[in-house]
Design a protein that fits this description.
The longest helix is centred in the middle third of the chain and has 29 residues. It is built from 13 helices and ten strands. Strands 1, 2, 3, 4, 5, 6 and 7 form a seven-stranded mixed sheet that branches. Strands 8-9-10 form a three-stranded mixed sheet, with helices on both faces. The protein folds into two domains: about 180 residues, NAD(P)-binding Rossmann-like Domain (Rossmann fold, 3-Layer(aba) Sandwich); about 120 residues, N-(1-d-carboxylethyl)-l-norvaline Dehydrogenase, domain 2. It is α/β, with parallel strands linked by helices and about 325 residues long.
């Protein structure tokens, strides 16, 4: 049977059994980095037969309940659902359709692309995987990081047809309490870029204010006491505040280099669509993020922009 979600969406299919246990599927995760590892572990913990493959580390056998595969084609062949969490569109194209064995293995599979790529890049990828014989394609980028992935509380913004969205719900509902279908392929990707632009804007803006406070020896706790009850406050400010004060950017949930990639994707989308959106604010974010990377902080938490904002590069 199926149930309707708010807005008339068709919800997850469940087995016809007294317990109402959600449908379990065979799924593989391609790309088990910071987020992909958590995705695979969460899917396995929810009872899905889960496999994993990573480009740089070989078979993934260290994730509880997850079967590691030595090749991408092997992982795809063993699954019905293929979840991708790779870093960019070039990697996705290379992994999914650049290898003939993997391309052949895509026939009849459901592809769920969960990384952050551009809207047109997603539409192009959909075309390629459908040519390879994939049964369905859904873009499903997420907002949230490792803790939300472990708890299954990610915010999923999907792009695709209603039929493909419905087909993907057994996987999506294991990662998100209420996955949302935004519209056709491309709209989920655009929504994700819009949100990640806000991550950059808020974090860099907050860091800039913090830098002025520090230059003038203003007690930060008193500033925060004014900010928190105001309309200017965003919870991420408190999440990043101590990291910035301590300049401790280790153990990232989202690396600085990925935020720069997303700001560049946002600008590319403006260029490709002929949008009238002014890019000068985005160029400012790009400048700070690129500077932060040059300071050796590419793989650290994106709160490292505080160094990019407040410190000079070595001459």
């Amino acid at each position: 049977m199926r149930r309707r979600l708010a807005g008339g969406r068709v919800g997850i299919r469940v087995r016809a059994m007294a317990s109402g246990e959600a449908e379990r599927v065979k799924v593989c995760v391609l790309g088990v980095g910071l987020m992909g590892e958590k995705f695979a572990g969460r899917l396995a913990s929810q009872g899905h037969a889960t496999g994993a493959w990573n480009r740089t580390q070989g078979p993934q056998s260290g994730i509880a309940g997850v079967t590691g595969h030595s090749t991408c084609a092997e992982a795809v062949s063993a699954a019905d659902y293929v979840v991708t969490t790779l870093s960019d569109a070039a990697a996705l194209t290379e992994v999914l359709v650049g290898d003939s064995a993997t391309r052949s293995a895509l026939a009849g599979k459901v592809v769920i692309q969960m990384g952050t790529i551009g809207p047109q890049q997603s539409r192009d990828l959909e075309s390629e995987v459908r040519k390879a014989g994939a049964r369905a394609y859904l873009e499903a980028p997420v907002l949230g990081s490792k803790p939300e992935a472990e708890k299954g509380t990610l915010l999923v913004m999907a792009g695709g047809t209603e039929e493909d969205f419905d087909l993907c719900l057994p996987v999506l509902k294991s990662l998100s309490e209420d996955p949302l279908l935004i519209g056709p392929v491309g709209q989920g990707a655009a929504t994700k870029l819009a949100l990640n632009q806000l991550i950059g804007a808020i974090t860099i803006g907050f860091s800039t204010s913090l830098g002025l406070l520090q230059d003038n020896d203003v007690p930060v706790d008193k500033f925060m006491a004014i900010l928190r009850p105001s309309a200017l406050y965003a919870p991420t400010m408190d999440k990043k505040l101590q990291r910035m004060l301590d300049r401790d950017y280790a153990n990232p949930n989202f690396p600085t280099k990925h935020l720069l990639k997303d700001i560049m994707l946002f600008q590319d989308e403006i260029d490709s669509t002929g949008s009238t959106v002014d890019k000068r604010f985005l160029k400012g974010q790009e400048h700070i993020l690129a500077k932060t990377l040059r300071m050796g902080l590419a793989d650290t938490d994106y709160s490292a922009v505080h160094d990019g904002v407040t410190r000079n590069e070595e001459p």
